[in-house]
Predict the structure of Adenosine deaminase.
Amino acid sequence: MTSQHQNTPNREQILRAPKVLLHDHLDGGLRPATIVELARQTSYAQLPETDPEKLGIWFREAADSGSLERYLETFSHTVGVMQTREALVRVAAECAEDLAADGVVYAEVRYAPEQHLEGGLTLEEVVEAVNEGFREGERRARANGHRIRVGALLTAMRHAARALEIAELANRYRDLGVVGFDIAGAEAGYPPTRHLDAFEYLKRENNHFTIHAGEAFGLPSIWQALQWCGADRLGHGVRIIDDIQVAEDGSVRLGRLASYVRDKRIPLELCPSSNLQTGAAASYADHPIGLLRRLHFRATVNTDNRLMSGTSMTQEFVHLVEAFGYTFDDLQWFTVNAMKSAFIPFDERLAMINDVIKPGYAELKSAWLFQQTASTSGSVDSEG
Ligand SMILES: [Zn+2]
């Protein structure tokens, strides 16, 4: 029997496929059991559950409420247990390990150093602890037969006034584990233009940054992030769909901003499951990623917050394969898009694409082809 989805990868194949992740929050990806242990060790008494399994469910349900503000509330607990050097090293190491076990070969993981100072750490000590954890996680992954490279993005919070200080920190630790800068937090009422000094500083330093924009908020936020702040990538950017009109006959018209984003190949860090939880899309099949992929925007697939969404890169790809019938070629396209859009130097991105990603997909596709040949000859035998 043939089907148009016969080239559709299954979960096990997707798990083995090399994947690249550009938008993942360190404080949104803790293992529930680690939160419980760290809470005990650091005398954090505010957890809503102390059974790891129940706690994991609590996070997903709280994040499922449909509001970005409520979604962001869940972070008080994860950030609450990440206030010591040991906790940060552990969380970062487990993050790298978990991503590697999920088949991620390159990741840029972000966090806001200013949120980890309650235990007396300095901004520098926070960055160094997380870097140490990532290196430890990479080592443990290698010992388990997985290879991953993790770079850090330093995030400044939109509602705070430390963006320039964090941008300077990102610049100081450039080439020392930090690959760029980000700005995050609730979009409404806090336009990125509040932090122009930080973006102008980074541009003068030839450094890279992404901005959370066009998630809960629409086109003005995307426009500001690009045309006022000069963002290299858009964190989410999913509302660019508001500037695209699809007529009844299927013809598509792009507005000026959507055209600009596509023409300039501006990477969209799309996070399907997270968008469903915050109400930015009604279902996977309705998620704008389908149209954006068809129109050849520089679309990438990301997890955002693995704990709150109960997801992984494999899981995100599984959802998209189910919703859109994506093939190995589509998954490779998203992965190459992400690698092209990473903040590490061009030659290193190219090497990852040519030496890791393309061979990885070629192997999976050839295994699939031989499997097909085997099952085809099997059916001929049974008929003849
Ligand atoms: Zn995010």
Observations:
- The domain at 11-368 is CATH 3.20.20.140 (TIM Barrel).
- The chain has one domain: 11-368.
- Residues 1-5, 380-384 have pLDDT under 50 and may be disordered.
